[in-house]
Design brief:
Blueprint: E1 9-14, H1 21-32, E2 36-38, H2 39-49, H3 52-62, H4 69-80, E3 88-92, H5 98-110, E4 117-122, H6 125-139, H7 146-160, H8 163-170, E5 173-177, H9 182-194
Helix pairs in contact: 2-3, 4-5, 6-7
Length: 210
C-alpha cells in the first residue's frame, strides 16, 4: 500500500517492547504520507547535528541520566514544527507518561489540533518476552536476559500503559491484536483506522478524515 492521504493524519502508536510497533509505525506513516517521529531518532539526529538541544541531550546521556520530560517534549515540539509534519505525523515512543501526554495536548491544542487516533498494539506479556528473547539470541545480545526483558516490560506497564486510559476517555484508541503475521497485523491497523474514517487514499477512501 503506497498511496498517501490528502488530509491530516495525526497518530500515536503504543505497545510494549516486542509488539512490533516500530515496524508497524513505519508502514502506517508511509501509507498516510506522514513522517514517523520516534524519540530515539530525534535524540540521535540532534546530537549528530550538534544542535543546541542536541548538546543538552548528549550531556545528560553521557552523565548516565534519563532525558527529562521537559527536554523530551521540547525536542518533539521542535520536530513537529518542521514542514514535513505540517499535514500529520505518527508518534512512536512519545508520550511515555501522563506528564508528556499533557505537554503534547497543550502543544497540539495551541495549534487547534488533536490526535486523530491512538493505535494500541495488544500483545500478551509472555508473547513479548518470547519475541524479545528470540531477538536477543539472533542479535547476540547476551545481556538481554529474561529478567532484564521482564523489567523493561514492567516499566512499560507501570509508566506508559496508563496513558491509554487518558486516550480511551477521549475515544481515540484503536485497539489491535498484535499477534499474527506482519501483514495480518498491518491490515488490522488499517481496518481499525478505517472504522474511524481514517482511510488511505486508493484503499477505498479519499484520504484521512479529520
Amino acid at each position: 500500500m503506497t498511496a498517501s492521504a490528502t488530509d491530516s493524519a495525526r497518530f500515536l502508536i503504543v505497545g510494549p517492547q516486542g509488539s512490533g510497533k516500530g515496524t508497524q509505525g513505519v508502514l502506517v506513516a508511509e501509507a498516510f504520507g506522514v513522517p514517523q517521529v520516534a524519540t530515539g531518532d530525534i535524540f540521535r539526529a540532534n546530537v549528530a547535528g550538534g544542535t543546541e538541544l542536541g548538546v543538552r541531550v548528549q550531556a545528560i546521556i553521557e552523565a548516565g541520566d534519563l532525558v527529562p520530560d521537559e527536554l523530551t517534549s521540547e525536542l518533539v515540539r521542535d520536530r513537529l514544527e518542521q514542514p514535513d509534519a505540517a499535514r500529520g505525523f505518527l508518534l512512536d515512543g512519545y508520550p511515555r507518561n501522563r506528564g508528556q501526554v499533557d505537554d503534547l495536548a497543550a502543544f497540539l491544542g495551541g495549534r487547534g489540533e488533536s490526535l486523530d487516533a491512538v493505535i494500541e498494539l495488544d500483545v500478551p506479556r509472555q508473547e513479548s518476552i518470547s519475541r524479545l528473547r528470540d531477538r536477543a539470541v539472533q542479535q547476540g545480545r547476551t545481556d538481554d536476559t529474561e529478567e532484564v526483558i521482564a523489567n523493561r516490560l514492567a516499566i512499560y506497564e507501570r509508566e506508559t500503559a496508563p496513558i491509554l486510559d487518558v486516550y480511551r476517555e477521549q475515544g481515540v484508541v484503536v485497539k489491535v491484536d498484535g499477534v499474527g503475521t506482519l501483514d495480518e497485523v498491518t491490515q488490522r491497523i488499517f481496518d481499525g483506522l478505517a472504522g474511524r474514517g481514517l482511510v488511505v487514499s486508493g484503499s477505498g477512501g479519499n484520504g484521512a478524515a479529520a
